[in-house]
Amino acid sequence: MNTMTLWHITGWEFAALAFAALLVGFSKTAVSGANTVSLAVFAAVLPARASTGVLLPVLIAGDLLAVATYRRHAHWPTLWRLFPAVAAGVVVGTVFLMWADDAIMRTSIGAILLLMAAVTVWRRRTADKAEEPDSVTSRAGRLKARSYGVLGGFTTMVANAGGPVMSMYLLSAGFRKLGFLGTSAFFFLIVNVSKLPFSAGLGLIDARSLLLDLALVVFVVPGALFGKWAVHRINQRLFEQLVIAATVVGGLQLLLR
């Protein structure tokens, strides 16, 4: 069955989704959080609610590739500290999705994208004040982990947009590049897999969405391979500026649509 006909999307729209899937792979192995651009593309091409269900398996494919690449660099004490708060945020996000219609979802995703862009800018400006990873064991560190965890769980459940939140937390905790990538890889694999039953129960994942995923997942692999090659060569500052700009444009497009 033709997935483009099934979803009533044009060739150009499928090309946009394929590029977004490519960017998912790149973000998972190079610049965590860059897939907010992919989120904007999916929500612009597909119905807002449906887009979150289609994007989730694509993200999980990217997570698997990231774990395979950086599995030795994960900081598990940080992950265990985050998961309870993230679970609470996912539950809150699920409740929100139970009553939000497509218009509210589109507006919410647009607002979350703009919030994430602001969060990323703040992260960049405070990165030089980073603490060592072990400092999260302090009382202030535990409070910070809970706050970021709840926000990350909510944003990842509602809009698959938890990347910038967790990026800011991990950088503020003093993680170097490889530790950052390894920790975030396991974090998002576990969180995204745990979201599958919630998304399926809400009707966001079904046979039709999985059929489109099969056509898109193949584009994640070259993106991840390119990210692995580029991670030590990319001009991080310029790329983050481009990601922020694209995220703002995507958020405004959804809000004004």
TrEMBL record:
The chain crosses the membrane at residues 82-99, 105-122, 148-172, 178-198, 210-232. InterPro entries: TM_pro_TauE-like (IPR002781), TSUP (IPR052017). It is found in: Cell membrane. The keyword Transmembrane applies. Keywords: Cell membrane, Membrane, Transmembrane, Transmembrane helix, Transport. It holds the Pfam family TauE. It is a multi-pass membrane protein. Belongs to the 4-toluene sulfonate uptake permease (TSUP) (TC 2.A.102) family. This is Probable membrane transporter protein.
